[in-house]
Amino acid sequence: MDVMTPRRLRITLKTIRALIFISLLCLVLFSTIILSIVLYAKWLGPPSLSVPQSTLIYASDGSKIGELHNGQKRYWVDIDHISPHVREATMAIEDRSFYQHDGFDYKRIAGAALADLKAMAKVQGASTITQQYARNLFLEHEKTWQRKANEALYTIRLEQNYSKDRILEGYLNTIYYGHGVYGIEAAANYYFGKSSSDLTLAEAAMLAGIPKGPTLYSPYANREKAEERQEIILKMMKNEGYITEKQFQSALTAELVYKKKTDTVQPKLAPYFQDAMLSEISDKLDIDAQAIQTKGLKIYTTLDADMQKLAEETVGETIDESSDIQTGIVAMDPKTGYVRALIGGRNYEESPFNRATQAKRQPGSTIKPFLYYSAIMNGFTPSTEMKSEPTSFTYDNGKASYKPSNYNDYYANDFITMLQAIALSDNIYAVKTHMFIGMEELIKTGKLLGLSTGIKKNPSAALGTSPVRLIDMVNAYGMLGNGGKKVEPTFVTKIEDTAGNVIYESKQEKEQVLDEQAAFVTTHMMKGMFDTTLNDYTSVTGHSIADSLTRDYAGKSGTTSSDSWMIGFAPQLAVGVWTGYDKGKTINLVQERGYAKEIWSTFMEEALDDQSVKAFRPPDGVVGVYINPESGKLATKGCPTKRLTYFIEGTEPTEYCEEHMSDGEASETEQSSDQKEKESWLDKFKWWD
């Protein structure tokens, strides 16, 4: 038997003491490191939980009309709004001791390490929900020691600064469920067409199994594998006491009804409107489109979903399918500038080019109301007469000439009033007016009305040869209709961030930019295009749709060789329709020339069908009198046509139409004139006294 000598005993004791000291030192060092990491994590504070989220878009009635997700569908919902079955199924399969550990499950880590050692390969994972959440939030998925260290640090920071419920909420809102879908809310909608709060036990177990391998366990990718994993999860839920045997059997045999794959890709409502809306937000908030799509915003728009559908249906029912003609439509509230419906083309998938907001086209005679407003501001009245006959105009100090013509070369070859000129769309009268008041006047009015493309200084500008945008024209007509108050085309009323804070709200001061009286006089004249009693050497331009209209509208049509326009408004709604070809092709078919008016009249009548009939109310400072539209003078009983016409007070006609006046009426008129003269003299006398 080997007896230990005192010397060997002393050496052994020293060794033991050294080992104990080293062990204690290592323990202190390890504890210090751990404590330092924990304190450092605490000092860093809570990490941001913000992640890219889908931006939701709502119509004016609060209904959802679309979403923006940049290829990743994401929504965020509070944990209280997630089905308990989802929470329990997820914990059962991913982290059974989630509420007990501090971010790391050391028992699972040891077990996984032993299993990997035995298999000499990575066969088992031990990541907790907190670790997975940290990885999803902050880290790339490369397998390096640095990434592992960062993951541990983020895990500690999450556990130190957030409650377990908040961590679980974040995890469920960020985990990937396949097919570009992130988060349980998006997954519930994508697979089952419902909210995550409404998921059944069977549905929750199915979804909880997908994140393990989305390409393997998605029911769309592999129904058999998905159902096998669903059964495993249900068993684990039963073993953990989350569900009973009865619930297990019921869920196992429940038939799941998935959304059809064709249902998961809904056609975007009002795609041209949504593009224009994004452009508006980008300009006003100074953020790019990609940021808008991933900030989880709630965008409340001006779109009237019913009007939008009506516009699309009207186009589809009016334009022949075989025709290649294009169209643009804008419907707007003239009092606010809110865009209620917008179409930028016949097929967004084939051509996303927005003809309502991007295309610049010659407006033709739809420019004339702005010209006649300018004329009224320069002393013209609806009774002002000029001769309609072939005319050659010289300009630029006689260096250039311009000879316009009327449609089909029809002329009155006589004097006509401004009231007739706008209703019959007489080009000679328009150019004469333009030249008489000065070509710069139309340019000034165009600027006041927000025509951003500008009007060129030449005689033909009176006939709409300077290109404009449809949306600008509709907005300008709306300003005439609202009494001359400035509005701008508006697509968004409000934007909220993910926390519900309002970060943008539309506000318009509605500055008075036009003369209210002149705007009303112009508006009232614009009703003439639908008044067939004004037919003369040619028909009023709205004669083809006049019989289909049941309320007061003011409007103007316009044509060029490649464009057909119809713009008009009621007190509640301004609508513009353009039809034409993209690449310079001319409109030759009679049927195609009528599309714009037909679409406009059909849409207007149906869009306002459930609204009360409103008339254009004259403001103070205007006077309405009945005139003979041919002469512009006060109508008598014998005049075949009498029309109520408004004038700025003090500019109304005082002479009666003598052509159809009887002897008795002439005598009464003379007496009336004498009386007015006496009253006028008496008023002056009283003032002088």
From TrEMBL:
It is found in: Cell membrane. NCBIfam families: PBP_1a_fam. PANTHER family: BINDING PROTEIN TRANSPEPTIDASE, PUTATIVE-RELATED (PTHR32282), PENICILLIN-BINDING PROTEIN 1B (PTHR32282:SF11). Residues 657-689 are annotated as: Disordered. This is PBP1A family penicillin-binding protein. The lineage of its organism: Bacteria, Bacillati, Bacillota, Bacilli, Bacillales. It comes from the Bacteria. The chain crosses the membrane at residues 20-43. Residues 62-238 form the Glycosyl transferase family domain. Signal peptide: none annotated.
